Amino acid sequence: MQVPADTRLADELADDDVVEMANLTTAQTGVPGTIFISTAMGGHRPRVKYFLQPGRSQPSFSVAIADTPTVVADSLPVRVVRQRSPQVTDWVSRSKDALLEFWHHGDTWTQPEVNDFIQKLQRV
């Protein structure tokens, strides 16, 4: 299955929308690399982005936050997507309800609420 190229984070953040976001580390998720989470951004459906290294201009792949998480866009080498996407989709499955709550309502949370949410996410 061919998926579209993943949009650079810098382009997604160029909109004037206010979003809460966090770059989660391996220690927080159990997945080697960085998983970017955010509240609703642009016209996208709920999703997370995976990076080998965090940064607005770094290549990434996006995984839908859904009952069956799938890669919906990618700009990383195929070998990286094949290696990391099972771990990222597993993590999204474990955290789906919390991630959806953050996506839809996190923009109203205080910083302590965001910190508490991040601490409660499950690791793989």
Mean pLDDT: 90
Low-confidence stretches: none
Shape: globular
| Structural class assignment | alpha+beta
Question: Using DSSP, what is the number of strands?
Answer: 5
Q: What order do the strands of the largest sheet run in, or round the barrel if closed?
A: 1-2-3-4-5
Biggest sheet features: 5 strands, antiparallel
Tally of contiguous helical segments = 4
Q: Work out the oligomeric state of the chains in this entry.
A: single chain
Radius of gyration, in angstroms, nearest whole number: 13 Å
Percentage beta strand: 15-25%
* Helix share, percent: 25-40%
Give the termini distance in whole angstroms: 26 Å
Order of helical and strand elements:
HEHEEEEHH
Lay out the secondary structure.
Blueprint: H1 9-12, E1 21-24, H2 26-29, E2 34-38, E3 47-51, E4 61-64, E5 71-74, H3 78-105, H4 111-120
Antiparallel strand pairs: 1-2, 2-3, 3-4, 4-5
